[in-house]
Write the structure tokens for this entry.
Amino acid sequence: MKRIEAHDSLTFSRRYFSWKNKVAEEQEDDDLGETAMGFTTKSTEKQSSISSPAPRRKLSLMAVPKLRFALSVGLGRNRTQYSSGLGTKVLGTLYGHRRGHVHLAFQENFKQKPAFLVELATPTSILVKEMASGLVRIVLECEKSKEKKPIKLLDELIWKTYCNGRKCGYAIHRECNSVEWKVLNSIGPISMGAGVLPTAADDGNSDGEMMFMRAKFERVIGSKDSEAFYMMNPDGNGGPELSLYLLRI
């Protein structure tokens, strides 16, 4: 009996000791758990405050404007150096006789002299068909001058022309004379649209009626040797139907 009692007391002591240790370990675990939970809660709060659904939506909606703003800040230092009298939003006009060549002019507004005016080798009727079939990408490419004092990109005289990847002859820089002013003034304050200008009966031009298209373009300056003009859609949906790229290589 004594041996049994001793054995029972020893067993009880072991059980009590192990239970006490277990309780102590559980308390330590609880303390650690509370600490971990406190850290996790704070971390979760921080993560939730950083990566909550609402800010993600705002970032997705504001990604493009912020990117454009960052680019404008980064390029702002160079814009004064590369400035040619045009801002970031310009007025673009394509016009030409139906059987003649296309003229392209960019203005700050319809009352000011065009800062960029070229005559493309592409016939007006061909360009109209290209635009009716889909997106049009026009690339004007010129060579760098070996002179010590290079001229501004928009003042280059001769350009190699590519339309949707196909070579289309050369474009020639034009000065805005009385004939060009007459056409631009006939379109007047129209900021967006396309149509046909009335011609006089005694005009004597055998190239057909004068067609035009006008729209607002976004101007992006890459460097002193590269610029791009993207036609802006009025509804803000989809990509530009017409893009013009100026490259000096």
